Fold:
Amino acid sequence: MRIAVIGSGALGLYYGALLQRGGNDVRFLLRSDFDAITARGLTIMSAQGNFHLDQVAGFRAPQEMGEVDLVLVGLKTTANDVLTRLVAPLMQNPACSVLTLQNGLGNEELLADAFGPERVLGGIAFLCSNRGEAGIVHHLGQGSVRLGEFRGGGSARTEQLAVTFSAAGIPCIAVADLCRARWEKLVWNIPFNGLCALTGKDVTEILAVPACRAQVREMMLEVSAGANTQGLSTPLDGATFAEKMLLATDAMDHYRPSMMLDRLAERPVEVQAIYHEPLRRAARCGVTMPRVQLLAALLSLPGSLC
Amino acid sequence: MRIAVIGSGALGLYYGALLQRGGNDVRFLLRSDFDAITARGLTIMSAQGNFHLDQVAGFRAPQEMGEVDLVLVGLKTTANDVLTRLVAPLMQNPACSVLTLQNGLGNEELLADAFGPERVLGGIAFLCSNRGEAGIVHHLGQGSVRLGEFRGGGSARTEQLAVTFSAAGIPCIAVADLCRARWEKLVWNIPFNGLCALTGKDVTEILAVPACRAQVREMMLEVSAGANTQGLSTPLDGATFAEKMLLATDAMDHYRPSMMLDRLAERPVEVQAIYHEPLRRAARCGVTMPRVQLLAALLSLPGSLC
Structure:
């Protein structure tokens, strides 16, 4: 499969490298580390085994990347103002689909408005990785992907893509209800990304304080209530799902969510996709998420990281 | 009037000094600045006029303070574990009343349990002051007091006390509904003390961000809803009152609430009296204050000040 990676951060480089190692023709849009990667290749450091790709097809502009079958989007949503402009040249091939693995809500809609909803797939990545020096990506854990059609429902295309990903070592399933999968991820992302980013505490430190654990749970229930206004195929059982998420998080040893790392590095944080868009969609259906509102407001205070 | 000041911080020293200057026999329980104040007196620095008291009656223990007519409590509520022990020796005079000017809820109850509800008065101080070097208090603004009977209703005693305070230069009125006055103060204290303490931003910086201003307003509405379960003589009109409080705060130029100063100085913060007790009382009457809950939980995270 010919795959263009747009947004070659830790996520795009990691998945792209696995797909290339798995025999696909992967082409990366690169910026700051173009020289390093095209000269010396790409190294993945992982507890599951390090590997190095000698030859990496790097490009400085999407117009130079040629014809591909799939655009894989790993761009931070904070750069979404350039998203469709970067993807457009590749979509001139009418058989090309675009799969966004970005966080939060609203990304598929941006792509659907530009290229047509039938060409858009979305995926939720459960991946912990970050970039080291130029050309090196550290894979810290997990890595599975759940992907589906933006328009909803199953398809041969998503099933085939899940097989391609799985064959490359990326545990992947196709889901019929992408909207539900996105909201399920938000049940975790909304409390933990924001609370950790705001307070500078990791998930273990947050959950160690009983009052905070209780509020994480309440926020999960708020998000589940918001999710259940979005026409999911089957509703989320908020209490059960929250308990499951809390127990899963207990097993994460001092994990620092991406938004916390962004704040610590003084990069912009993905407040629009992870907070404002879910708040807006739930409110439109009559559900207020008060704790989520407060957290989103505090994240929008300039420099309020502890 | 013979007055014992228990808790001679910025508030106790300021009000005590004014009352002494107004002709009352004021006695201060002192700790760290006993030597400085008994040797050199007490200085109030204020835009309304500086003044100095040469002779100040300082004591190291309440047992030494003699018989008084009123105990004025200015102790931080974080020291409430010693409150009744400090006040008890002075209450051996059966004609002595105790007036607590402490923040939040639960202080009158502590005193009422120890000395009988009929001996307890409460007051809400609108005062901005802080301590300078030993023996010097800076009065930054305001200073009025609203006081009332713990048991509710008006009384000749509170009316007389309001006259005594006013004559000493402390604008003071007696209120028939102390509970309502306390909750009115909480409508301001709960959002601003906590948000400023948590984020390290002053009230002007908080209100400058529209999403934060909106959340302050929502928290004020939550507190008003909580207040209106507490048997107030007349209910609070939440929306109108919130608007009034927001406009009043707009006029405060980069004001830093006491809890923010406490956090910055790494002193304990009054979370129990200002958050947990109001949350508990509202919840007992069926009202949840979700944003207040979240803020209280974040304030209980160790070292989460920005």
Summary: Chain A has a mean pLDDT of 96.
